[in-house]
Amino acid sequence: MAASKSQWLTFSIILALASTAISFYLSRRKTKSKSRGEVNKKIHELEASLKSALEKCAAERQGRIRAQQALRKALSGPNSVNLELNSYPMAPIAIVHSCFSTRNGTPRQPLLVPLARASLIFDSSRVPPASLEGLEGYSHCWIIYVFHLNTDLEKLWKPSSQSKFKAKVRVPRLKGGKMGVFATRSPHRPCPIGLTVAKVEAIRGHILLLSGVDLVDGTPVLDVKPYLPYCDSILGATVPDWVKEDRLLTVASVNFSEGFSSSLADCWTMAEKKSLYASPNEFEILIRQVLSWDIRSISQRSRPHDFPVHTETGSTVDDASTLEHYQEDEAFENGFSAVIYHLILEGLDVSYRIDSKGNVFVENITVSSHTQTLS
């Protein structure tokens, strides 16, 4: 009897434990099922929200595109009378600090003077330094800029019927002959925008250092783009024969006076702090490279060497006594022009003469009194 009671007690305990285990298992399974259902529900809600956001973004983009198309159509229509609305709001993003203080002497094309240096100082309020990251990996870059020193800029604000932009311009390689403005790189254009290429030397914060430039000091820059040889250099590209006449713009030789080096050394004490060059010797090489090309205007080159002319300083050689004085000059007798020309580099005035055979004689260098200051 006692044994039977003991067996029944053992069975009851086992049954209770089994029941508890089954209840616990079913409870956990129900909980897991509920949790999985909640997760699936949340996933469906997020998917629906994402789909709705994408549809809304696409609709907004299409709306912007339609609005922009409508605006361009309205502005280009015949009934548009506000000329200012027909222009695009563009402002310079950088200013050029160049070795060329004035237009006179600035190379006619890029890379002709390898030692011609400049720094592009970007407006940090509009262009973060991070914008220049990666540009140092390119050897050259394109620069889009404004011909801000043109003497005919006031024409831009006149109605097209009164602007009187010249369709043809005089070309140096044609000895003053005229060519359509769009067949040239003349700065005097309906829109005075220039395009040049330069060698990338270094990037220092918000400053881009360049060489081989043909940019005058203070030039406003609109954009900078990397030079891509695979598409920017066109294999088999051709040009008219008159463009190939480089010999018309080269000089026979560049010669320095005996006292030039000492004069340069004296001037260097004032120019050194702001100079883009490390020494007077390097600066003298720059002068030689610049003057290796005839930087005179067409009228200056075609002017007879013994003909009365206006000098660069403003005085006029127009009477017999003055002309006789020039003719007594030893250099004049040797074929040099009576006119002294001036090249201003980094605020230093380089005076030189050139003879009828294209030999340049650099006479002196002084601190210029009318240089353009970069603000």
From TrEMBL:
InterPro entries: TrmO-like_N, YaeB-like, YaeB-like_sf, YaeB_N_sf. Residues 90-236 form the TsaA-like domain. NCBIfam families: tRNA_TsaA. Keywords: Membrane, S-adenosyl-L-methionine, Transmembrane, Transmembrane helix. This is TsaA-like domain-containing protein. SUPFAM superfamilies: YaeB-like. The keyword Chloroplast does not apply. The chain crosses the membrane at residues 6-26. The keyword Transmembrane applies. Gene3D superfamilies: YaeB-like. Belongs to the tRNA methyltransferase O family.
